[in-house]
Design a protein that fits this description.
With about 190 residues, this protein is α+β, with helices and mostly antiparallel strands. Helices cover about 60% and strands about 15% of the residues. The relative contact order is 0.12.
């Protein structure tokens, strides 16, 4: 490949990866074309992109960026996956795909998160974390749980007082009702 072509490919990779902060590296070498297309379609449904790159060109394109450390020490061809709502959702989908029999040649190689590279084993660990949406739901549950407890404690004093007033009121009505026939009989 000529230097001119390498520069064109490098610039195109820079454009495609602009703004990408988290990505996973996977191996798709040896997959059948139909399986690869099906994998890409499954990932695209979840807003995940898969791009097969030559590691030396990808290293040139990502040099000095957050993704730069992902390609250190790699040779040959690799596929780069990015997208989804966050790195955890991305890891969950990639781990799920790697366990499917249909995609037997699909293998996780590692990834990069916030500029720090990590190994394939860590991708599996990350896939067990709660996603951004799950974390928000947990946080909201904790906040509303405290607010509900506080609300019930604040309202319970007033409810007890209202109950006692109602009981007292009902008791006064019974005494008034029972006194009226006796007063009428005395006259």
């Amino acid at each position: 490949m000529s230097k001119f072509v390498k520069n064109i490919i490098t610039e195109e990779l820079k454009k495609r990866l602009d703004g990408v902060e988290n990505a996973l590296l996977v191996n798709v070498v040896g997959m059948q074309v139909n399986d690869s297309n099906k994998l890409r379609a499954n990932l695209a449904e979840k807003d995940i992109r898969l791009l097969v790159v030559k590691n030396s060109l990808a290293a040139r394109a990502t040099k000095g960026t957050i993704l730069g450390s992902a390609f250190d020490g790699l040779a040959g061809t690799t596929a780069l996956c990015w997208g989804a709502s966050d790195i955890v959702a991305l890891a969950k989908e990639i781990v799920k795909a790697s366990k499917e029999k249909q995609f037997a040649k699909f293998a996780i190689l590692g990834g990069v998160m916030d500029g720090e590279a990590f190994a394939a084993e860590q991708v599996v660990e990350i896939s067990k974390w709660p996603t951004r949406e799950e974390q928000i739901a947990i946080l909201l549950g904790q906040i509303t749980g405290v607010a509900a407890g506080l609300s019930s404690q604040l309202l319970s004093g007033g409810a007890n007082l209202a109950s006692q007033i109602k009981q007292r009121w009902d008791g006064d009505e019974e005494e008034t009702t029972s006194d009226e026939p006796a007063a009428a009989a005395a006259e």
